[in-house]
Amino acid sequence: MIDKDRNQLSDIEIISGLEGNDVTVTVEFLYAQYFKEIIEVVKYMGGSEEDGADVFQEAVLVMIEKIREKRFRGDSSVKTYLFGIVKNQWLMELRTRERRKKREEQYMSGEPYIQNTLEYKKSNADLNNLFNQLGEVCKRILVGFYFENKSMKALLDQFEFKNEQVLRNRKNSCMRKLKEILSTNKNLIQSLKSDFIYE
Amino acid sequence: MNNHHTFNDLLDLWVKDELTLDDLTLITGKTNSEELLYEATLHKSAVVSIQKFAIAQQVASVHQNYLATLSKPSNETRVISINSRKMLQRIAVAAAIFFGLFLTVDRLLVNPDMIYRESYQEYYGNTERSASVEELQNIAEYFRVGNYQAVIEAFGLINEPANKEVFLAGYSYLKIENYDQAEKLFNTIIQNANAGKENLFRDEAEYYLALTCLKLGKYYDAYMLMKAIRSNPDHTYSDAFDSWSLLRTKWLD
Q1: CB-closest option in B4, B8, B48 to A195
Q2: What is the pTM of this model?
Q3: B210 and B116 part of one domain
Q4: Between B33-71 and A24-44, two packed helices, what is the crossing angle to 10 degrees?
Q5: What tens digit of pLDDT does each residue of B185-205 get?
């Protein structure tokens, strides 16, 4: 358990915090420690403050995934690892923008190039859209069961279902709906397959 | 396997590595391995999406809160701001007090009436020097008893008044607060003296003319006369005006 009032967390505590179901405190620590510095790095590399903020958010998500997938071996400090992800994310973004710019110049000569938001924000937006289609109750049931690893009994206390079987039916119905929507987005499935946390 | 809910539960077990694909094939009886693999992969992707979504929600929440705190002025900034505001208020209050004090001082100290009162000396001069003894006796008597109006009336009857009568009349005008006439008569004495006619009562005329000018609001003239009187150690009224009175009279101008 991480002490909220402490100003410093060791790398071991950060890793442990990001492996748990509630990553809030640890993520808050990362923001407090590194956000401003990373904004400056991205600005130095040609980005804006908004780019820096977006890249930092994505880098934190990537780092959480790597840690949960046990792919962070601890060869470097958490800070170095995070900064490395930021640089890679930003370089990828720059390349994507450059490719898109060239493509648009090729097909829309004379039209000004409009820089869109970061590419990876699209996949996050896809994910949000996916869950928004499920409804609030489905979201909470599925997150409770598949992410927080709550038992059916624990979830039953949280929701007003008649009994555990009714809840189980609802959970399976939510899951079926999720899969139906997901099956229509092949790209998202592809990216999710490469991110499977339990592997 | 006919029960879809049970199939979902089995897929959950497979996702948690509690069952293998072979186990699933065996239990569900699905002979089409491609179909089973697709079902399993889709289920797995759904579980991953839930996990990613849950973490992304938490990070997004922290992100939004953090950006919100950045856009707000920090406590330190607020403290500085409050301190600055307090400091400005204090400066404003101090300035108001200072200005109030200045006005008070200005009203109380740099006040022509006050300078007049502080510098004023009664005239108790003798009546010996006069061209006409009879006329002088009348004027001197009226003056002695403080009947200044009678002094002025008697003065009006004199054809060729000497400086003494002119001065007593001028002083009487000053006493009855007819400053314009007082000024005129005191100036007559000074002009006579400058013309070499008669130098008597020149010091008295200068001194009371300076006071008359204060009453008339002619502060520059008053200051110049006061300064000349003070700088002349032989002047009868050399000690009548101190440097503080001079300074304040200068401020009035």
Answers
A1: B48
A2: 0.55
A3: yes
A4: 80
A5: 999 998 888 887 778 888 899
